[in-house]
Amino acid sequence: MRPPQGSGHEAGAGSSPESAESALLGPSAPREARVLAIANQKGGVGKTTTAVNLGAALAEAGWRVLVVDLDPQGNATIGLGLDRQKLEVSLYEVLTQGLPVEECLQDGRVGGLKVAPATLDLVGAEIELVPAMSRELRLRRALEPVLPQFDFVLADCPPSLGLLTVNGLAAAGEVLVPIQCEYYALEGVEQLLQVIRLVKTQINPHLRVSAIVLTMYDARTKLAEQVAADVRSHFGGTVCRTIVPRTVRLSEAPSFGQPITVFDPASRGAIAYRELAKEVAGVAP
Ligand SMILES: Nc1ncnc2c1ncn2[C@@H]1O[C@H](COP(=O)(O)OP(=O)(O)O)[C@@H](O)[C@H]1O
Ligand SMILES: [Mg+2]
Hints:
The chain is of the alpha/beta class. The chain is built from 11 helices and 8 strands. Strands 3-4-2-5-1-6-7-8 form an 8-stranded mixed sheet, sandwiched between helices. α8 links the parallel β7 and β8. The chain is globular. The N terminus is likely disordered. The site of adenosine-5'-diphosphate has 17 residues, from α1, β7 and α9.
């Protein structure tokens, strides 16, 4: 059974305070696949870990998933078991030369999971695209033909608010923002929301922040508890109930080129990402 379009994590709708943010929070408009940009310009907050493991958990549950690696570092590409040296084409050719996205798609580690991989070439795209026509819409246009083939597209954005992230936001219906349960957790988030607002008004009127995910939660510290409480009081129902714990296994999995659901299927990290997948998807496939 196909889920109703635009379903899923919608707790933000109606329950958020009447602030400048409230217009950004809530469910997305209907699309063929739900396209989520996983964005936060801070590095090391769990964007890639979430793209890889949420993607794998959604695929394990039977959804058709595409992970788009928008970060030239290619961590999602590597984390899903691909060897960047062996890739003949990548998202770089798709964004800069108009190569059909199908031609760069690779199988991830889980049935039902595909990857649009990144190589270091992608660094060049950020610069090469500057004078190009509709440079912000390259990813959106590239993905359009393949959207019917997927239920979820997760775009792992780089740690900046540059053109690659803007391409991710322009192609998405929703934004998932990982927030690390550490000091300065909310630092920069207002700036991110501003860019999302800008993309929404200029190019993508249906864009919504549909999920805020607390990551690297260390239950032994008072700080993590405090940060989680602060984030919840600030963003209300948009914050996912599922909290991703800080675990060594989650940090080890990428060096084996495996998502946590394959690397250690019974681990706390795997359980958390399966829970998050249920929460984000809302209904069974
Ligand atoms: N829940 C977690 N527990 C332990 N380590 C984590 C967790 N989430 C991410 N990490 C590790 O923290 C680092 C940064 O995470 P990453 O997902 O790459 O962040 P980003 O993509 O936002 O830069 C990586 O080394 C990753 O393996
Ligand atoms: Mg990353």
